[in-house]
């Protein structure tokens, strides 16, 4: 956020018609510096788009259990920013409007609602067990109703650009490519040191 704020300030100071974009997670929404940067962007009318990728968990903690005072967008609006909350998988049209608003020297914040879909083996990091803080039903519901690959495949099928079975073929091919790359890396000699 700080780097993007500085870039937005530079753009305004130089009279350049461009915006700066900062991405941060929902865990960062409860840190003071995030709001200090958003406050300055609003006070100085900087061309900043702040994008919160809200996957509903700050590492293992449900964000709702540690965030008081209403929604993230309401917080941003209290600083004078235009704010919106959209589905993180289908957000492009909404965000384009916000980019236009920011290019007119009016900072905005967008909350992209998303979800981490784990394999069911690990959580946010490889050492965390996902079952400790998310139920199997929650993960299954997200995969069934909101998984971006499933949704994209469904849309491509509707458009006639993907036939039945094509996704499985593509998935198998991608797995083969990754497996071959891993095998190549594991079988390659260590580089010479200088």
List keywords for this structure.
alpha/beta; four-stranded parallel β-sheet; 194 residues; 7 helices; globular; two-stranded antiparallel sheet; 6 strands; Rossmann fold; 46% helix
Q: What's the count of strands?
A: 6
CATH architecture of one domain: 3-Layer(aba) Sandwich
Q: Which parts are unreliable, with pLDDT below 50 for 5 consecutive residues or more?
A: none
Task: Please give the count of helices.
Answer: 7
The SS-based structural class is: alpha/beta
Give a brief description.
This protein is an alpha/beta fold and 194 residues long.
Structure description:
The chain is of the alpha/beta class and 194 residues long. The protein has a domain at 1-114: 3-Layer(aba) Sandwich (Rossmann fold), CATH 3.40.50.970. Helices cover 46% and strands 15% of the residues. It has seven helices and six strands; from the N terminus they run αβαβββαβαβααα. The strands form two sheets. Strands 1-2-6-5 form a four-stranded parallel β-sheet, sandwiched between helices. A two-stranded antiparallel ribbon has the order 3-4. β1 (20-25), α2 (32-43) and β2 form a beta-alpha-beta unit.
């Amino acid at each position: 956020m700080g780097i993007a704020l500085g870039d937005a300030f530079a753009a305004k100071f130089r009279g350049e018609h461009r915006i700066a974009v900062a991405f941060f997670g929902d865990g960062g929404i409860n840190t003071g510096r995030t709001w200090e940067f958003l406050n300055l962007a609003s006070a100085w009318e900087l061309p900043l788009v702040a994008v919160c990728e809200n996957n509903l968990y700050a590492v293992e903690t449900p964000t709702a259990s540690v965030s008081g005072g209403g929604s993230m967008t309401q917080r941003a609006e209290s600083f004078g920013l235009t704010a919106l909350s959209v589905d993180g998988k289908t957000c492009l049209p909404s965000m384009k409007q916000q980019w236009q608003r920011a290019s007119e020297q009016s900072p905005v914040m967008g909350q992209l609602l998303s979800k981490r879909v784990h394999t069911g083996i690990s959580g946010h990091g490889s050492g965390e067990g996902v079952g400790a803080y998310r139920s199997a039903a929650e993960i299954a519901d997200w995969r069934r109703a909101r998984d971006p690959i499933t949704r994209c495949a469904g849309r491509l099928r509707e458009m006639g650009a993907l036939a039945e079975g094509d996704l499985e073929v593509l998935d198998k091919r991608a797995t083969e490519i990754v497996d071959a790359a891993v095998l190549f890396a594991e079988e390659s000699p260590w580089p010479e040191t200088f």
